[in-house]
Amino acid sequence: xxxxxxxxxxAIKRRLSGAFASGRVAHSYLLCGPAGSGKHTLAxxxxxxxxxxxxxxxxxxxxxxxxxxxLAGIHPDVITVDDPDHKAMTVDPIRAARSDMFIRPNEGxxxxxxxxxxxxxxxxxxxxxxxxxxxxxxxVIFILTCENRSQLLETVRSRCVCLTLQPVAWDEAAxxxxxxxxxxxxxxxxxxxxxxxxxxxQVISGITDGTLQQVLELTPAIGEAIVDPQELxxxxxxxxxxxxxxxTDGVLAGLIxxxxxxxxxxxxxxxxLSTAPETALLLAGRLNGARLMALLETVESLQQDVLHSMxxxxxLTRMSACLRQAAGY
Length: 329
Prior knowledge:
By secondary structure, this protein is an alpha/beta fold. The protein has helices at residues 10-22, 39-51, 65-72, 92-100, 123-134, 154-157, 170-180, 186-195, 200-208, 211-226, 231-239, 245-266, 277-286, 289-308, 312-327; strands spanning 28-32, 78-80, 111-115, 140-146, 161-164. Strands 2-3-4-1-5 form a five-stranded parallel beta sheet, with helices on one face. Strand 2, helix 4 (92-100) and strand 3 form a beta-alpha-beta unit. Helix 10 packs across helix 12 (245-266) and helix 12 (245-266) packs antiparallel against helix 14 (289-308). 40% of the residues are buried.
């Protein structure tokens, strides 16, 4: 298969290439990964491969009308199932898809239904989708995307081929980032790549929309607030993360680098991973090694928990409490 534009994830590429080469294409795929990890790019490539007018492993060819339309997002048989009027995706778009799927494709080989906000489906929507997934027509394919597979019902997950996207290593991400952001110094790009966990989409948007700068400002401030006698200081700072999930991800990653620097400072090492050496020294002076390790483990655990959290406000309140507790405050 041709995965142009989709970086890293060699295991997923091998698995999909083998499936298309042997004609064993699944009727439903679940693509999992944080924002900016390439889910939508892979979904578009899968749609093109399924509508490609060629056969075998050399799909999508990128030349035939089916490929070109699918890659451009204008293929009549590639249908996006969404509920833009509601934050939580309701059952109505799923029912509409169920009514439509028994109609034969307009011009392609298959009808592909893409659900780009799988994590936002409420329980009724997921149960309605389950009924479709159990016995879909032979010409129907579903592609769901979500941030974490645990956000979906087990009964839905079990009927999909689940593909979990991995971070893209710096060596592979660097040429793309240099090409997309030629004005940015290489060290800034590498720092953003580290803070946003190897998610290229987050790196690009983080630099262009100012999220990176906010991460660089908030991370040391939150680090200092962890050891502030007034708990309200930390609560006020974490409240600024409420509306921006990428900002939360970046700050958590930044705190890990900050705490590693603090641990290094306590051991006399000159290692500097973060961009706030003064804050790292402050933490090293206020907290012993055991407390710093407890904080580091807490932040790493919070990184996993944020993927499962449906309510960001509650998560951030819990985040403040966990950080203070780990620091002994």
